[in-house]
Write a structure and sequence with these properties.
The chain is built from 8 helices and 2 strands. It is mainly alpha-helical. It folds into 2 domains: about 1-60 and about 185-195, no CATH class; about 80-185.
Amino acid sequence: MLFIFSHRVGTNYRTFGNAGVEQLSPAEWSDEMQRVKCDYCGFPFKVAKVCEGKRVFCCAGCAVADRVLTEDGNFPVTPELVLALLGGFTAFNQVVFGLLGWLMRAEGNEILADRFGWISLGVGGVSILIVGLAQHRASAAGLLDRVVALAAVGLWGTGIILTSPSCAIAGTASWILWGARGWIRPRVAADASDLRSK
């Protein structure tokens, strides 16, 4: 329900950099915008102008998933796939080092607990950079994508200030889960003219 609500709230004011539509300032929003469907999941949304030959996506998650998965479900080696795997690998290690820090603290070894905590925070920063790079390469970040990114960086920064790996883990997890929603939705198979219907 939260996904549907947040996704629908953003449908009239998404901006898409180089993903085939023109960026708009709030003063340029209008009801006469062109209605299109996401080339990945088929979700309808509005844009000011569609560039011929460019694919459009409703969110950064769909844009990244479209660049990674093929029609038959295979995973060809692409920069987006490498970034997705690196993001998952670093996020996993962030959690592992955070857990090791908590275990060391429970055993009374504060020195090792602090070291593992700082390693977790550092790996979390790398993970956030990798996920950010993947979404930047997708060039389809909408307003809600940017808000979630800022919240994730804010949580990571709070983790640094408070020396709290759990805050940083929450930030990384929220951004990865938000970006992964395009992977969860099924790819639609439709003809290009239908995808550009008004």
